[in-house]
Amino acid sequence: MNYTNILLEKAEHIAQVTINRPDQLNALNKATIFELSTCLTDLDNDPEIRAVILTGSGGKAFVAGADIKEFASFGTEDGKKLAAEGQLLLFDRIESMTTPVIAAVNGFALGGGLELAMACHIRIASTNAKMGLPEVSLGVIPGYGGTQRLAQLVGKGKAMEMITTAGMMTAEEAEKWGLVNHVVEGEELISLAQKIASRISRNSPNAIGAAIKAVNAGFEYDKDGYAKEIEEFGNCFGTPEFVEGTTAFLEKRKASF
Ligand code: COA
Predict the structure, then answer these.
(1) Rounded to an integer, what distance in angstroms lies between the CA atom of residue 132 and that of residue 180?
(2) In what order do the strands lie in the sheet with 14-19?
(3) Where residue 1 falls among pLDDT bands split at 50, 70, 90?
(4) Average pLDDT score over the chain
(5) Which one of 98, 113, 227, 247 is separated from 129 by 20 to 30 angstroms, measured CA to CA?
(6) Is 220 a catalytic residue?
(7) What is the H or E stretch that residue 56 is in?
(8) What are phi and psi of 136, to 5 degrees?
(9) Index of the ligand 1 atom closest to the CA of residue 133
(10) Active-site choice (12, 70, 95, 115)
(11) Contact, 115 vs 62, CB < 8 A?
(12) What's 87's DSSP letter?
């Protein structure tokens, strides 16, 4: 598929997806959400790809939010549909991907942009990054999972403050609060993401997918994370990757997955 709002590069089992609307600070319009959904689903189904890096083009923004120009005239039902479709198509889909997605936050990550980063499995940021959920300043609330995932990542108290004040966090504050794992200078951001992706790519893809499912289960109200862990743990034993991983250890060599 040819994309108009995103760029896709692949090398050595790692894909980089760059949201490419820099003149609109990479705001997420409907077309971009659809392209991201299609592209990430394809990458998740591609056995050659073992980790994905998601970033924004231009030096200023990761994603400055959902496209305000697109939803400004919406009514109640349109609003519900926007949130429901977006969650289903993109945000929940990323979270449930069995190929880890690393958000490389290279500037503003606001509203839907922070929600996008929070749906990813790992977040790193450049020193110039600014993160926040400013929706209440527009008379709306986060609709792409932000009220849930921010509280999961930074705790309910800090999430309440960020959401109700519509304030922004610096990259350093975000690291302190556990919203991002690492902060580096802008020019080092992609190389750090590649380093993490490369470490992921050396491990068992099946086991990584199983681990993601088990971790996620603990955050779903209708699932028992411990039971899911037992199920996924057991399933690993029946796989060729388990045989290779344990055999390699016993033969004192590196496993080749
Ligand atoms: N939706 C649609 N367009 C957006 C956008 C968004 N979320 N964020 C930025 N843009 C557009 C601007 O409208 C402008 O487009 P224009 O040149 O056609 O007018 C362009 O991106 C550049 O943004 P601008 O506001 O001029 O840059 P700035 O440096 O002055 O400010 C921000 C940067 C991020 C502080 C500011 O753009 C902003 O507050 N954006 C909205 C953030 C937000 O509320 N997000 C949550 C949405 S739910």
Answers:
(1) 13
(2) 6-11, 14-19, 51-56, 101-105, 122-126, 182-184
(3) confident
(4) 97
(5) 98
(6) no
(7) strand 51-56
(8) -65, -20
(9) 46
(10) 115
(11) no
(12) I
Residue spans of the domains in the chain: they are 6-201, 205-250
Nearest to 56 by CA among 5, 91, 101: 5
pLDDT tens digits for 43-90? 999 999 999 999 999 999 999 999 999 999 999 999 999 999 999 999
Which of 85, 93, 90 is CA-nearest to residue 113?
90
The pLDDT-based confidence of 161 (bands split at 50, 70, 90) is: very high
C-alpha to C-alpha distances, 22 to 17, 56, 81, 106, 169, nearest whole angstrom = 14, 8, 26, 12, 21
Alpha-helical (H) ranges within 76-204 are 76-86, 92-96, 112-119, 146-154, 156-165, 171-176, 189-201
How many residues belong to the chain? Answer: 257
To the query of whether residue 115 is one of the catalytic residues in this protein, the response is yes
To the question of domain 6-201 being in CATH 3.90.226.10, the answer is yes
pTM attached to this predicted model: 0.98
